[in-house]
TrEMBL record:
Keyword Transferase: yes
Domain N-acetyltransferase: start-end pairs: 36-178
Listed GO MF terms: acyltransferase activity, transferring groups other than amino-acyl groups
Ion transport found in the keyword field: no
Official protein name in the record: GNAT family N-acetyltransferase
Lineage top rank: taxon: Bacteria
PROSITE patterns xref list: GNAT
Length: 178
């Protein structure tokens, strides 16, 4: 089973193990931009900084790339406190010109040790349900042209290929209601 949960410092140990599994990255590919100074630190304080970042509702960035959004953590289980944190979902509430080409409504990432277990497909389905609750009828998702696992995840959730950008991103529209 897979669940989406709100980021919460009480899950810091599982979050820290996930961060270590991903490695030393300042921005997790597929999970949206993290507005942190450098990579997340796999400590309780690092988790606190990450959770604070997810709660900020700042206005759009000067370059127009940031829009209101919701961050989720993916857990292996039903969302209980002892469930392992296995990834991220980032839901952007609407699109701007930048996101229409480069990001889409939803981004997701599953830690390397938890891949190939169905978490990405299930988490994306849950993210689409959350988008529907916001009034998004069709969600845009993108993935790199060579990222076959992500492409299959999008297609398993009903994604319809639209085009490939000049930067090599595949764009799909996915209905949010089944």
């Amino acid at each position: 089973m897979t669940a989406l949960v709100e980021p919460d410092v009480r899950r810091w140990e599982s979050w820290a193990a996930m961060i270590q599994d991903f490695g030393d990255v300042a921005q997790m590919h597929g999970s949206g931009h993290w507005h942190l100074e450098g990579p997340p630190v796999p400590t309780r304080a690092g988790c606190e900084a990450f959770v604070l970042m997810t709660e900020l509702t700042a206005p759009a960035d000067p370059d127009g790339t940031r829009v209101p959004s919701t961050y989720f953590w993916i857990t292996a289980g039903d969302g209980g406190w002892d469930d392992e944190v296995v990834g991220f979902v980032h839901l952007r509430h609407h699109l701007n010109d930048h996101l229409l080409v480069h990001g889409g409504h939803l981004g997701y990432a599953v830690r390397p040790s938890a891949r190939r277990r169905g978490h990405a497909t299930a988490a994306l389905a849950l993210g689409l349900q959350a988008a529907a609750r916001l009034g998004v009828e069709q969600a845009l998702l993108t993935c790199e042209a060579g990222n076959e696992p992500s492409r299959r995840t999008i297609e398993r959730n009903g994604g319809v290929f639209e085009d490939e950008t000049a930067e090599g991103l595949l764009r799909f529209w996915v209905p949010t209601a089944s």
